[in-house]
Request: fold
Amino acid sequence: QVQLVESGGGLVQAGTSLRLSCAASGISTVSIAAMAWYRQAPGKQRELVARIARAGSTTYADSVKGRFTISRDNAKNTVYLQMNSLKPEDTAVYYCNLERLGPDYWGQGTQVTVSS
Reply:
């Protein structure tokens, strides 16, 4: 049974930083094609924030480029999202995503709230 456990969300002030973590269990590293972070704000569609492929290539949403960094520890099957210079518009539930050959897996989500 594959599980994704997220941590690191919270309430912070604008301009500060947070780091999200997502640990995957129940799956071998070689079976993971990519891991990613998505977010969904109230009344909006879920959107891709950042993605890191198995080989290490990364993709970012334009809105977070230069502020957020995604990284991955393959030995721990863990993906991180370092979020700097947070803005109120970054407020959302952040979901970890795991891509593999077959349906994706999703975490339960962690709330990030940025106050102005």
About this structure: The mean pLDDT is 95.
